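Possible regression after last week's pipeline update?

I re-ran a chain I had predicted before the update to compare outputs. Posting the input and the new output here so someone can diff against the archived version. Not blocking, just want to make sure nothing changed silently.
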Amino acid sequence: MEETCSSCCTGLIKEGPEFNLRFADYGWCAYDSISEDLVHRANLEYEEHGIEAAERILVEYYQNEAPKQMDHILGASPSFAMREGMIRQCFEDHREGRYYASVPLSLIIIDGAVNDYTKKKGFFTAATTVDPWDCLVGCTEGLTKIKLNFNQNRLKTNSDPIYIPYRNGILHGRDINYGNEYVSCKCIALMFAIADWMIRRTAREEGLLPELEL
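New output (post-update):
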């Protein structure tokens, strides 16, 4: 596989798929521009102390460091850029711990941006797929699994705390105890993953990237 992005070094290409196998079920996904050090530390913590300790590393990063990189999302696609005001408000709510506001806003941004980008449907619909060549670090399976997990339907209102952003339950008012840092951080992480997916897919469609050998 040819490396086409300076942020995607050999270590990330190796550890990214392993990260997705371990963390996708919990709502995290590696992507092309993710911090290699973050992926390495999370994988190591998972091996030594388990999922709870590893998730704390991820939460701390997406709470404190990721918001500084918001411009990466804004520059990924016009479909994100036209939502700059919403995105800045989402990140502000996230930084200030207003998770009941940041979570639904991030899900709305993701759905709308992907809908505009694909000119089909939002991210959480079956019509939107992630092709293997749209991700350099093996995020295809991770994004697909996250989409399925986040899209679970609720048959009745759930008042227990949740730690995965169940899109339908949250936006339809059936998961009412979603306002915590885990859910918000996972929404922020997904926004970065989708931004990288858009960047790579656009470059491939414009002939700026070779097809990957799968």
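Follow-up from reviewer: compared with the archived run. Residues 1-8, 210-214 have pLDDT under 50 and may be disordered. Marking as no regression found.
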